[in-house]
Amino acid sequence: MTIQRRESTIEYPVPVIGFAAFSGTGKTTLLLKLIPLLKAAGVRLAVVKHAHHAFDVDHPGKDSYRLREAGADEMLVASRRRMAWIRENTQEVEPTLHDALAALNPDGLDLVLVEGFKGDAFPKIELNRSATQAPLLFLSDPNIVAIATDAGTLAEEAGTLPVLSINDPGSIVDFILSFSGLDERHAQNRAR
Predict the structure, then answer these.
(1) Contact 143, 37 (CB under 8 A)
(2) Which DSSP state fits 95?
């Protein structure tokens, strides 16, 4: 079967690359390994994560929580070290990746990593672990640009897609930097 690869429908001032996999594959675990390596390479990055469930980053009893509970549609907490912004969604509609990216400030970024939003059309690395026995996403998603796996036999099925070791974060970082055009900066930082 030949998969027709297509261009991303996401337009953003900096490269956007996602990680697509079924639950339990280790998307967050891998991101926790990749982020420090990318930061060490001098990459300024944002992470966008999709949640399929209700969540709260605020805590009962805190002033910001109480103000939001009192009816504030948006709540911004700012200090000299960080800002946290919470917007209540008034409609029960899942946000798109485009919606999430619109909330970021690309001026201070070189790269956006995305966990989730696997139905949106943008470049993604598929994560696949043999233990999960999950179906392969690249067979139906033409936006998969590489596969990170622990199954060496997958290389035959992947065709022309790069196959990376899910257990080698450094090689995945190298791919991300090359794919996003940030590899020259990475090489300069290695030389330091």
Answers:
(1) no
(2) P
